[in-house]
Amino acid sequence: MTDTHQRASFTSFEESTAEDWAIIAPQLSVTQSMVADRVIDLMRALEFDHGGFPVNRLEHSLQTATRAEKDGQDDEYVLCALIHDIGDTLSPYAHPDIAAGIVKPFVSEANHFMVKHHGEFQGYYFWHYLGMDKEAREVHRDNPFFDHTEEFCAKYDQKAFDADYVSNPLEHYEPLIREILRGADSAS
């Protein structure tokens, strides 16, 4: 298959020209238009990893989102609840940063903070069993989003391991993923 799309011709940014960037810049919206599908694919991949938990990682994510949705949280919050652990299969130790990087351009500062730091806040419930500091979240005590994140973990994240809970399926959330992650250029 031949690639017929025009491409820039530089070998280093130092050599690039305005004409090169005129070719590259429009492609950002093309790439952004694929993000929702890629996020959905990554969510589906969570189904095949349980990490020893009572439910697989997809079910945990669906339970977290379903609980937030049923509690009346807005769409942005529900999206964050859904994809907060999307990075678990890519990099368990850095999974909050992966999810936070995905949502950052599209969500409030409060919800970005919540996703980025949920791991430390979630640790309150179990880190002491692993010889870690369960109070690690306290470094964020003076942050205006501390309570927001604490509530997310208390009400939704730490409770989302019930094998008998009936969650909404991923398909239920696909329109939400597409709506929020479509990007500014494709919003028109």
Quick structural summary:
By secondary structure, the chain is mostly helical. It has helices spanning 18-24, 27-32, 35-45, 57-70, 75-83, 95-103, 109-122, 146-157, 170-181.
Describe this structure in words.
By secondary structure, the chain is mainly alpha-helical. It has a single domain, classed as Hypothetical protein af1432. 50% of the residues lie in helices and 0% in strands. The protein contains nine helices and no strands. The chain has helices at residues 18-24, 27-32, 35-45, 57-70, 75-83, 95-103, 109-122, 146-157, 170-181. The model is unreliable at 184-188 (pLDDT under 50).
Helices and strands in order:
Layout: H1 18-24, H2 27-32, H3 35-45, H4 57-70, H5 75-83, H6 95-103, H7 109-122, H8 146-157, H9 170-181
